[in-house]
């Protein structure tokens, strides 16, 4: 099974709104390994590893985030 690793830097109001915890749950439901970390500059770094389609679905979710988040940008690179 093919696996990919991606790093997403998520900007906006993404700290203090359960972004990391919700991202972990979304990734788990897709069978994707996830580590989400708050950065000092206010962004959240999301490291994902799993099947390409599943990782892409989690990245799409990152563009929306949980209900109280306001995502203004998502930068994705290979990790």
Give structural notes.
The structure is a single chain. The chain has 79 residues and is α+β, with helices and mostly antiparallel strands. The protein has a single domain (4-78), classed as 2-Layer Sandwich (Alpha-Beta Plaits), CATH 3.30.70.100. Helices cover 28% and strands 41% of the residues. The protein has two helices and four strands, in the order βαββαβ. The protein has helices at residues 19-29, 52-62, and strands at residues 4-13, 33-38, 44-50, 70-78. The chain has a four-stranded antiparallel β-sheet with strand order 2-3-1-4, covered by helices on one side. A hairpin with a 5-residue loop joins strand 2 (33-38) and strand 3 (44-50). The longest helix has 11 residues, at 19-29. It starts with a strand and ends with a strand. The relative contact order is 0.35. The mean pLDDT is 98.
């Amino acid at each position: 099974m093919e696996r990919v690793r991606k790093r997403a830097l998520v900007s906006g109001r993404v700290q203090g709104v359960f972004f990391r915890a919700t991202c972990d749950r979304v990734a788990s439901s897709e069978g994707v390994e996830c580590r989400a970390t708050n950065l000092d500059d206010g962004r959240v770094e999301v490291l994902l590893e799993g099947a390409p389609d599943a990782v892409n679905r989690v990245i799409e979710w990152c563009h929306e985030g949980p209900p109280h988040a306001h995502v203004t940008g998502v930068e994705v690179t290979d990790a």
